[in-house]
């Protein structure tokens, strides 16, 4: 039986220009799931997440994190749950913990995550994102578009941002990022996980 080999969606990510105006670091092999609360079950869902992860789930565009997971509010009664470390089985465990309270859909192979930081980051984000990313609170997040590509962006609390885009659209996103960041330089860092 043939085994599938993991290939990073960011394998084409490479430094551009000189300097490090923006530093990009792939976030690899994370468990990712969309969590959609069942009708009338948000309070119970919040209690289940609190018991399982010690997180007070917010039903608004906000990032809340614990040691093992981050929840991003991506719409009314909807979150994107991301494991903090590469973990096999994260989505299955999450689905079991939230059974009957939410629909949990595995996005681990469908979304690609990238951490962005650097002194030129804000000016680069302004070149493509349809929102003022600087206005996001330190734990804010938004579902928007960049260069006509659907994206979820969130502040990471350290002055940087992380972005989730469809894995199939990484090439278009990289074209925008490399072009927009080239003037100040695009550096590449390894996964922090």
- CATH architecture label of the largest domain: 2-Layer Sandwich
Rg value: 17 Å
How much helical structure, as a percent, in the residues? Answer: 10-25%
The major β-sheet equals: 6 strands, mixed
Kindly report how far apart the N and C termini lie: 30 Å
Name the structural class. Answer: alpha+beta
- How many beta-strand runs? 11
Q: Quick check: average pLDDT? A: 94
Pfam family, one: SoxG
Protein name: Sarcosine oxidase, gamma subunit
Organism: Rhodopseudomonas palustris (strain HaA2)
InterPro entries: SoxG, TrmE/GcvT-like
Structural summary, described in words:
This protein is an alpha+beta fold. The protein has 2 domains: 22-28 and 110-188, 2-Layer Sandwich (Gyrase A, domain 2), CATH 3.30.1360; 30-106, Heterotetrameric sarcosine oxidase (Alpha-Beta Plaits, 2-Layer Sandwich), CATH 3.30.70. The protein contains 4 helices and 11 strands. The chain has a 6-stranded mixed sheet with strand order 8-9-10-7-1-11. A 5-stranded antiparallel sheet has the order 3-4-5-2-6, with helices on one face. Strand 8 and strand 9 form a beta hairpin. The longest helix has 12 residues, at 42-53. It is globular. The protein starts with 21 loop residues before the first strand and ends in a 5-residue tail after the last strand.
């Amino acid at each position: 039986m043939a085994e599938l080999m993991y290939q990073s969606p960011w394998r084409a990510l490479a430094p551009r220009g000189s300097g490090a105006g923006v530093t990009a670091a792939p976030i690899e092999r994370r468990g990712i799931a969309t969590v959609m609360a069942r009708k009338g079950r948000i309070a119970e869902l919040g209690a289940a997440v609190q018991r399982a992860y010690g997180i007070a789930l917010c039903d608004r565009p906000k990032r809340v994190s614990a040691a093992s997971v981050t929840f991003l509010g991506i719409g009314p009664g909807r979150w994107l749950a991301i494991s903090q470390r590469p973990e096999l089985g994260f989505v299955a465990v999450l689905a079991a913990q939230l059974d009957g309270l939410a629909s949990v859909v595995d996005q681990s192979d469908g979304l690609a995550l990238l951490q962005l930081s650097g002194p030129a980051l804000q000016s680069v984000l302004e070149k493509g994102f349809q929102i003022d990313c600087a206005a996001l609170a330190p734990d804010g997040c938004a579902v928007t578009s960049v260069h006509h590509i659907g994206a979820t962006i969130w502040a990471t609390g350290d002055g940087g941002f992380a972005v989730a885009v469809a894995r199939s659209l990484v090439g278009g996103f990289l074209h925008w990022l490399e072009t927009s960041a080239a003037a100040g330089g695009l550096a590449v860092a390894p996964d922090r996980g």
